[in-house]
# Entry
Amino acid sequence: MRRLIWPIILVASCAALGCATGSHKLDRARDAGSLHILIDQGIGRVASVLLRWVVEGGRDPRIHEAHPATLAKTLETDKTADVFMTSDEVLIDELIKRGLLDATSKTHFATLYLVVVVPHAATWVPKDLTGLAAPQVRALALADAGSPEGDAAEAALRQAGVWEILKERVHRAGYGNWPMGLFVGGKLQAAIAFRGELADQAQVAFEVPTESYSPIRCWAAVAARTQRKADAERFVQFLKSPEAARVLEGVGIEPVLRTSEDNSAH
# Structure
């Protein structure tokens, strides 16, 4: 669903801002002037920077959001791809070794942190990871096993010594596509998700201690076969700009360049 939502948001927002854009341009299969950006669905919220890119003078992007393994196949078969964005560093390094991505363009532009969330109407809120083992938590939502988000959450629970207690209560809720109404009906009492990801459905109980897992880094790289190399490189560098940083912070993602710092290092 998010794959459809972002172009709609871009079109509507650009119209409101007076940008020269239209849905036909976003959907056009091969618009020679538009960047074709492949986005890992697990970090789909980074698409929020695309409107800022347009406002700053970039052409309307054409996005393809999917599971990273699917995007890797697209990168291999579709010569129109320009930029690859993912939280899977192992995959991005593999694609570089295969000659599908430009090694010199690989850029860490943001970091995702985990939080524990509970329904807005919750009458009991856990204070820490060990609190999730309390009987009040009958079911706990995590992202799919094998995804960076799901594996990081499991690692944190193991580090806290509560995984064996909780593993039978875990409900795997997908990868990068948390369902609407996740807490409707009271079947789930808590979830571990990226900060800002479920803000419309839940309240944050606490931040997961970073010593219990490795925060997830977001990466971007330019496709080796891009026909728009200059624009693609400019977009990747834009991801570390103050303008992009402010947008990312607004959706709960920590940019490499914080808006209070003048530091664009990786």
Notes: The domain at 2-111+217-255 is CATH 3.40.190.10 (D-Maltodextrin-Binding Protein; domain 2). The first helix runs from residue 2 to 17.
